[in-house]
Amino acid sequence: MTTRNLIILLLLALVSPVQADQYAFLVGVRDYSLHNELTALKYTEDDVHTLAGTLSKSGVPQENIVLMTQRMAAQKARLSPRSDQIRREFQLLLSELGPNDSIIVGFSGHGLQFKGDPVNYFCPLDAKPTDKSTLISLTEIYDSLNRCKARTKLLLVDACRDDPLTQVAKTTKRIELEPVLDRVPPVLAGGTVAIFSCSASQQSFESPDLQSGVFFHFVNRALAGEADDDGDQAVDLIELEYFTIKSVQKWARVNIGKPQIPERVGRATGAMELVRLDSGRQPAQMNPTKPQLEATAKSITNSIGMTLNLIPAGTFLMGSPPTEEGRDDDETQHRVTLSKDFYIGTTEVTQGQWESVMGTTPWRGQEYVKEGSNVAATFVSWEDAVEFCKKLSAREGKTYRLPTEAEWEYACRAGTTTTFSFGDVVVSLNEFAWWGGLVGDGNSTTEKYAHEVGLKRASAFGLYDMHGNAWEWCSDWQADYPVGSIVDPQGPSTGSYRAVRGGSWIYNASYCRSASRFHSAPDYREGFLGFRVVVGR
């Protein structure tokens, strides 16, 4: 072979696309009668079998799908969902994955969390609540996924968590899951994204009417094509997340009268395509989107790298009940309906975003400030924030504005009625917020400034730092709430102070509550005042 031909072959190898394969690892446990310590579940096995069929129809090769259920064990003993076999088959599959591959991992069954132990455990067929060696640590699953070479990694978890010291209810057929307490780092290209069947302090249900767990019922419908909102014959992560969260939330409200809102943990940059509906093309790789306003109907990213998530219209209880610890008299509960969907920034406006639009650095040289392009922009007045929105609107050709108080609280709550978007337990606030730096005993006592955005856990709506970090300006003038129900409240037409919400790094936990209200003069600037923006759909 001549040197010229060798060079041509090498160049062809460099420019030729690398084959990208899809994989799935699915575990469902229905019958726990082996040790008679956990109740049986009706539909967990059917849920993962249906998911395997959906993925196969979308083009995932049958040999790339590992399905571990009692039904499969009858055909092949190694596919029994026992703890040692799950671990062995999982590691065996992960070792096969290359850097361009993708994998969907699904667990459906019971789960446990021990008192004083932040680790969540999935219960395999041979689970014994008193023996952790028989349980599958979800932290172990995360670590394995983070270490594997695959570029796209999605974990779906519908698992019950009951304190093993408390008798498992015999009369209910429900799955209960709170989000993991171990923080999953922000997910970039090649990272892991997890979607849990419900948010903190909620329950995840099975339904005889659906003949399925509610969560996996809508996951399967999403991946079968119902989530393809933009009609590109593919379902990506944003479409799956939006369809599943909205559908599960609505179904639970209408049919059970209780909240069940799936929660996403982790962060991905760009589109994460999961399945192709025509099965004729390989899935696109998870690459950063071009820095232009690119609507996917579920999320938009603009020219300065700002990402906003779509918040569905709905009705909620605004304010706090009289029994809520730390509440103030201006938080009277009332029913609010937001009639239109809207987009809201996933993070507070950063210093880098501010400087790219305004060309100024109002925080520079001020006390209690950390500088950095991803740090929340502070020392910004309400008037400054409005001017930022005007300039950004002119640049992007869309109307950016501050959220109303109602929009802010609705987005913050993400379907919850609890003190915080993650529940009522203050001790968990450190997982979601920077708080208590000067007044209180939070995690900012040694770091007295607003922090980089997106370092804490996101809410069920995929929003970061809604609790703490920087107090956020809203569009409303400060005023008492109206009496009775109201649709699309805008606040009074005049006033002396503008509303700010969310608490900050400086104050105690009660100011970080979802219902907490504060206000400030429109021209006031301080190191704990920032904002995020919204865009109408």
Automatic annotation (TrEMBL):
<keyword id="KW-0732">Signal</keyword>
<dbReference type="InterPro" id="IPR016187">
    <property type="entry name" value="CTDL_fold"/>
</dbReference>
<keyword id="KW-0560">Oxidoreductase</keyword>
<feature type="domain" description="Peptidase C14 caspase">
    <location>
        <begin position="23"/>
        <end position="219"/>
    </location>
</feature>
<protein>
    <submittedName>
        <fullName>Iron(II)-dependent oxidoreductase EgtB</fullName>
        <ecNumber>1.8.-.-</ecNumber>
    </submittedName>
</protein>
<dbReference type="InterPro" id="IPR051043">
    <property type="entry name" value="Sulfatase_Mod_Factor_Kinase"/>
</dbReference>
<dbReference type="InterPro" id="IPR029030">
    <property type="entry name" value="Caspase-like_dom_sf"/>
</dbReference>
<feature type="domain" description="Sulfatase-modifying factor enzyme-like">
    <location>
        <begin position="310"/>
        <end position="534"/>
    </location>
</feature>
<feature type="signal peptide">
    <location>
        <begin position="1"/>
        <end position="20"/>
    </location>
</feature>
<dbReference type="InterPro" id="IPR011600">
    <property type="entry name" value="Pept_C14_caspase"/>
</dbReference>
<dbReference type="GO" id="GO:0120147">
    <property type="term" value="F:formylglycine-generating oxidase activity"/>
</dbReference>
<dbReference type="GO" id="GO:0006508">
    <property type="term" value="P:proteolysis"/>
</dbReference>
<dbReference type="Pfam" id="PF00656">
    <property type="entry name" value="Peptidase_C14"/>
</dbReference>
<dbReference type="InterPro" id="IPR018247">
    <property type="entry name" value="EF_Hand_1_Ca_BS"/>
</dbReference>
<dbReference type="GO" id="GO:0004197">
    <property type="term" value="F:cysteine-type endopeptidase activity"/>
</dbReference>
<dbReference type="InterPro" id="IPR042095">
    <property type="entry name" value="SUMF_sf"/>
</dbReference>
<dbReference type="InterPro" id="IPR005532">
    <property type="entry name" value="SUMF_dom"/>
</dbReference>
<dbReference type="Pfam" id="PF03781">
    <property type="entry name" value="FGE-sulfatase"/>
</dbReference>
